[in-house]
Amino acid sequence: MTLPTLFHVSDPHLGHSGGDRRAHAAETAWAHLHASVSRDRPDLVIITGDLVVDDPDDPTDRALAHARITALEAPVLVVPGNHDVGDHAIRAGLPADWHGTLVSEARVLSWEALWGPSFWMRELEGWVLLGINAQILGSGLPAERRQWEWLERVALPAVSARPLLVFSHESLDARPETRDESAAASDSWMSIPSAASSRLAALLAPYRPVAVCAGHTHRHLDWTVSGFRGITAPSLTGAIPERSDMTAALGDQRPGWLRYTLENGALRVDQEVPALTATGAA
Fold it and tell me: Would you give the end-to-end CA distance of the chain in angstroms?
């Protein structure tokens, strides 16, 4: 019996608005992923955000990302990242000049018009997969209220005792870099804003998720803090440039993706690292 497999891809940053160098790097990396999907035929590809290179309002980048993703020879599910629908208002540890465009209801609705709902539930071989729009958490937008209601009344009650995987652009804020619970560690750029993260963790805890899987930091990391296993996928395209005024994330910054194998409630994670040149993508 063949075990179900998923490809967890994150932060492909497809598009041309970031310049020719970044566009070429993204296209090269995408070609490696496309070839691997065509060869291995995973049951599902899940992309945890930052589909476009930088600008959530650039229609050309959005159309290119849609064309590349829908051409994959496997079923695909996506959740948005900060470069897709906008960012949170507060981002501790992030350089001031990197604070991006704020998330808005209009941007979320525009994204959903192309991709479908930005939060979703799927079943696969006895597992439950939940996709969460991390960018609206803590925003106070109508989309955030809709997502909380869906989680509380629809999605989580349907999980029952089945193994659960949660997918989001950003991780819960219980990370190795921020576990000291200090004020400086709260609302880190690496994770969901602290108040919303605590609420989400409390909702998820009774269902004992096998892992909360994210991207955003452009590094692969696998950790357990506060009873939750967190996994971040690397960027498909490349690492975030290191800066002295930015809190550094932990993990392996080599570009690529993760292969998940599902078996009897257990999750096997293998890192796929194609031969790519570092790009300095953000």
Answer: 41
Helix, strand, or coil here: 214?
Answer: strand
The string of DSSP letters for 48-80 reads: ES--BSS-TT-HHHHHHHHHHHHTSSS-EEEE-
Close Cβ partners of 23 (under 8 Å, ≥ 6 residues apart): 15, 16, 53
Is the torsion defined by CA of 246, 247, 253, 258 positive or negative? negative
Q: What is the pLDDT of residues 137-148, one digit of tens each?
A: 999 999 999 999
The conformation of residue 84, written as its DSSP 8-state character, comes to H
Is the overall model pTM greater than 0.85, yes or no? Answer: yes
Give the residues across from 259 on adjacent strands: 7, 270
Nearest 5 degrees, angle CA 251-CA 216-CA 267?
65
Answer whether 184's CB lies under 8 Å from 194's CB: no
State how far the Cα of 214 lies from the Cα of 200, in Å rounded to an integer. Answer: 14
